[in-house]
Amino acid sequence: MEPLSSYAGCTLATVLKTAPLDPLENRILLCHALRITRVQLITQSERRLDAAQSEALTALYARRLRGEPIAYIIGQREFYGLNLRVTPDVLIPRPDTELLVELAMERLPQGAALLDMGTGSGAIAIAIAHTRPDAVVTALDASAAALAIARENATTNQVRVTLLESDWYAALPQDQRFAVIASNPPYIVAGDVHLSQGDLRFEPVDALTDHADGLTDLRSIIDGAPGHLLPGGWLLMEHGYDQAAAVRGLLSGTGFKEVRSWRDLAGIERVSGGRLA
Length: 277
Prior knowledge:
10 helices, Rossmann fold, single chain, alpha/beta, 7-stranded mixed beta sheet, 2 domains, two-stranded antiparallel sheet
């Protein structure tokens, strides 16, 4: 269904019935265009759009119909109960990654230090710092643009996170150690068809793929982790749906103990990790 050329004079109820997207996306974009809440959308159902509001809404619909992710259109995404600003400079946080947050906090002693590698929007680091204000959280990213978004999100959500521009461990002092290292690195294989489909078409490609076999960055993180983990510390990494066995092998080969994988809500082995002996 194509959007109407103009919604000027239409009530909110009419727009919701005739708009070109599914009901949830229609509600999100209508609320965003009019700067109203979902409750106001219901209570003001007979409110009519003026010409400027119609023009703004039609532009939003056109962007979505071209495939642009809702999160980029409205500039935010909820993650772990927090509202995070997102732009095309960062990946869109996904519910699957909340598993990594839970596993990291379960293994983080009171008052201990945690490192989030490749933080992007800051989702993992900020969720942990918000839930565990006792934790000393550091987050790294090679992208200055991504770090600017992460810094804004940390400020908005009133958490303390140390943010460093770094190519993996490069910017860390050699003697800095953490109780937990967590990461959601690029892991999609170069040329994977999914990179040209759906939301991934609009997301930063360097945050999605290592431009190789999908394991390059996971190897780098695993290889460098013993030099930055405390004895008994944990390394936890999100990875692709078919990479769990390979990642477990890399962890075991580097000397990690208690190596295992954890399944997400869809039953897919989504996170693997191990403890430094």
